[in-house]
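From the pipeline queue, job 12 of 40. The input is one protein chain; the requested action is below.

Action: predict structure.
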Amino acid sequence: MPAGDEERGDEPSRSERRAVPSDDQDALEEHRIARLEREVEELRNANEILLRVAGFLIRPRDRPQTGEDHD
């Protein structure tokens, strides 16, 4: 299960959101924004890793493969 699905379980339902006082609603919104910012950072890091791997995979090999290197 993706990490985002686990964290969504702690979000209040719509009816719970309406019953929350304004200050608490603001705190919940700040918590949600902070969580989304962390998720964005994780996705950026994953994207950077994938770009490095892709660059490695498309780079021509400098030397011929030996028997161990063959798939």
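Job complete. The first helix runs from residue 3 to 8.
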